[in-house]
């Protein structure tokens, strides 16, 4: 009898990455629905990731992007997605393989996924370690404003309204696998 086992963890990880792909496919086709918006963390040095050199030097291990108000050219492929985002008021094109994704959050519905890399290591995912407020308005409020400096410019210039009550802070460490 052989000692070969089914790798259920890998199968679940792949299925959950397919959930991310399907959500992005819907977004590509129909745009963002309602208050939905996404924080996607990925390993910036993973095979197939294409980032401008200045972003790669700023985020040498992991980067988190925001898909909300200002994005364009979203194209979903079988193994990766492409997107245009603004960084410091400068448009950039990114290519992100789904296998490089280590975190996906949709704060409008308090949904979060966290992935392991191929070696089974816990992802770095600063996004997951931050204390995040899932406010009634559907926006993410970081406890430390510096957390937002590490993400793309995805704020609506016309949005100066109240962000809602910020007393409901959720730590995303609760989603970490022990």
From TrEMBL:
InterPro entries: SspB, SspB-like_sf
Highest taxon in the source lineage: Bacteria
Parts of the chain that traverse the membrane: none
Gene3D superfamilies in the record: SspB-like
Pfam families: SspB
Bias type Acidic residues, positions: 142-159
Annotated coiled-coil segments of the chain: none
Region Disordered, residue ranges: 138-178
Name of the protein in question: Stringent starvation protein B
Lineage: Bacteria, Pseudomonadati, Pseudomonadota, Alphaproteobacteria, Kordiimonadales
């Amino acid at each position: 009898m052989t000692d070969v086992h089914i790798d259920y963890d890998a199968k679940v990880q792949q299925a959950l990455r397919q959930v991310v792909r399907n959500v992005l496919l819907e977004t590509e086709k129909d745009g963002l629905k309602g208050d939905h918006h996404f924080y996607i963390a990925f390993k910036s040095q993973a095979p197939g990731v294409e980032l401008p050199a200045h972003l790669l030097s700023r985020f040498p291990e992991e980067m988190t992007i925001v898909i909300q108000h200002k994005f364009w050219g979203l194209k979903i492929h079988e193994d990766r997605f492409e997107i245009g985002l603004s960084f410091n008021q400068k448009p950039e094109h990114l290519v992100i393989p789904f296998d490089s994704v280590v975190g996906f959050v949709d704060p409008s519905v308090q949904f979060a996924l966290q992935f392991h890399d191929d070696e089974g290591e816990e992802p770095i995912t600063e996004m997951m370690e931050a204390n995040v407020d899932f406010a009634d308005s559907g926006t993410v409020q970081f406890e430390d404003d510096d957390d937002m400096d590490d993400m793309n410019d995805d704020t609506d210039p016309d949005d100066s309204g109240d962000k809602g009550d910020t007393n409901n802070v959720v730590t995303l460490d609760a989603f970490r696998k022990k």
